Amino acid sequence: MNAWQSDDTRPIPGVFQNVVEQPVPNRGEVLIQVHAAGVTPSELQWYPTTHTNVGTNRRHAIPGHEFSGVVVAMGDGVDLKIGQEVFGMNDWYAEGATAEFCCTVPSAVAQKPARLTHVEAASIPIAALTAWQGLFDRARLQPGERVLIHGGSGAVGVIAVQLARWRGAQVITTASARNREFLLQLGASQVIDYRTEQFEDFSRGVDVVFDTVGGSMLSRSWNVLGPAGRLVTIAADGESTPDERTKQAFFIVEPNQHQLLEITGLLDSGHLRPIVDAVVPFDQAGAAYVGQNMPRRGHGRIVVAVIPED
Ligand SMILES: NC(=O)c1ccc[n+]([C@@H]2O[C@H](COP(=O)([O-])OP(=O)(O)OC[C@H]3O[C@@H](n4cnc5c(N)ncnc54)[C@H](OP(=O)(O)O)[C@@H]3O)[C@@H](O)[C@H]2O)c1
């Protein structure tokens, strides 16, 4: 099958297109024909891209661990139907979905939301599960609380803003000025331009900070928390920090079917909408990973259309 793989170069990895063996589902696994896959460029630098789950070197990993597609085969013990349309994310140590096929386990997928295209559905799993696990599982965001979301226009940010709003929180977010109107329409009550404004001037005493940016945006954020304030960060520098407080605040998203089903409900009811930044044909997926110029809306997720949509 055709696939894109990490070229493992350092410090900045790229990707190359290759023909690799089509995976065969083992017992308890399902084979998906990928229609669309989400792009998380920073994934190429993450530990599971370069290491196996037992710590040995990993070479030429296939990136893109969220997808929408169709069930085409399964191992014993799997209760899905051939032809069923599903979306989901798979384990970071497994081969990803920037390929014609990918293998996963049934508990990592759910029925594709009927009103979404495959491209739209592929933009959802990682962002929505990350936002859900950060805002609700870790920060325990409550209705009426104030949350500061750093990077509200990013792939994770656009979903975090919507989920926090749906939960009944008041959302303050940082983004570029060009995204201000868009984020106000999405549900933010205040948008702070991080290039010209100091978020500290507008967000003292917040209940929760949800950080997708890291660096000084993260380190400065401890000071704006109220007395019972909670901070979570997903930014990559949280993984290797020596700072104990930041280490505790950092987490990595995990597949969760129960949450994916709740998210599907919100998509079906229109409480949550997918935000696709750009759609890239399969042959040009490499451009999306190396940040090459391409026509973009400037907010949300870049998605690879493995099978072109009509
Ligand atoms: N730990 C996990 O489980 C997990 C899961 C998913 C992603 N991640 C990580 O989370 C981070 C964000 O991912 P993403 O996919 O959402 O990224 P993304 O789509 O590239 O978005 C990043 C956004 O950050 C904004 N931004 C840049 N500098 C900023 C600053 N100083 N202050 C506020 N906003 C700023 C940009 O907004 P403008 O365009 O408006 O300037 C951009 O939209 C990445 O580091 C990724 O690796 C981690």
Question: Keywords, please?
Answer:
Rossmann fold; binds NADP nicotinamide-adenine-dinucleotide phosphate; 310 residues; single chain; Quinone Oxidoreductase, Chain A, domain 1
**Regarding CATH, which class of the largest domain?**
Alpha Beta
Cα gyration radius (Å): 19 Å
Task: State the low-pLDDT regions, or none.
Answer: none
CATH homologous superfamily identity of the largest domain: Medium-chain alcohol dehydrogenases, catalytic domain
Mean pLDDT: 96
End-to-end separation in angstroms reads 22 Å
What is the count of DSSP helices, taking H or I runs of 4+ residues?
Answer: 9
CATH topology of the largest domain: Quinone Oxidoreductase, Chain A, domain 1
How many structural domains does the protein architecture include?
2
Report the biggest beta sheet as strand number plus sense, adding barrel if it closes. Answer: 7 strands, mixed
Strand content of the residues, in percent?
Answer: 25-35%
Helix share of residues?
A: 10-25%
Structural class: alpha/beta
Can you walk through the features of this model?
The chain is 23% helix and 26% strand. By secondary structure, it is α/β, with parallel strands linked by helices. The chain folds into two domains: 155 residues, Alpha-Beta Complex (Quinone Oxidoreductase, Chain A, domain 1); 123 residues, NAD(P)-binding Rossmann-like Domain (Rossmann fold), CATH 3.40.50.720. The strands form three sheets. Strands 3, 4, 5, 6, 7, 13 and 14 form a seven-stranded mixed beta sheet that branches. Strands 10-9-8-11-12 form a five-stranded parallel beta sheet, sandwiched between helices. β9, α5 and β10 form a beta-alpha-beta unit. α3 packs across α4. The longest helix has 14 residues. The chain is globular and about 55 Å long. The site of NADP nicotinamide-adenine-dinucleotide phosphate has 25 residues, from α3 and β9. NADP nicotinamide-adenine-dinucleotide phosphate binds next to α3 and β9.
